[in-house]
Q: What sequence folds into this?
């Protein structure tokens, strides 16, 4: 006799392809990509984009820190007050993200003759 295994004891079975689909469904920009977008010249270009009918709110309401579009100004202002947005902003202002050269942070490279 083999003991019967119920689904409640082992958890719910999910096929692998469903898990993979969920991982890529809500993929957002990484912190280093957002940091590059938050630089003044690039941020100005993002804010002054032409109207795009395919984006929510015609692309006018965009949070650079979270890389998200919103339907209207009220939704954007609500988002600005929420904890995930505040954490993301703190993470962006606290340190230079991995993959960004600290010497290149201000747009110039350090050349000390050691090439």
A:
């Amino acid at each position: 006799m083999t003991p019967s295994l119920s689904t409640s004891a082992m958890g719910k079975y999910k096929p692998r392809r469903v898990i993979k689909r969920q991982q890529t469904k809500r993929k957002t920009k990484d912190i280093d990509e957002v940091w590059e977008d938050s630089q003044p010249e690039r941020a100005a270009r993002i804010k002054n984009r032409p109207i795009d009918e395919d984006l929510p709110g015609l692309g006018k309401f965009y949070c650079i820190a979270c890389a998200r579009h919103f339907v209207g100004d009220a939704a954007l202002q609500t988002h600005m007050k929420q904890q995930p947005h505040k954490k993301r902003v703190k993470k962006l202002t606290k340190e230079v993200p991995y993959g960004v050269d600290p010497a290149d942070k201000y747009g110039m490279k350090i050349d000390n003759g050691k090439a």
The helical segments are 7-10, 16-25, 31-37, 40-47, 73-80, 83-94. The chain has six helices and two strands. The beta strands are 62-63, 68-69. The chain has a mean pLDDT of 76.
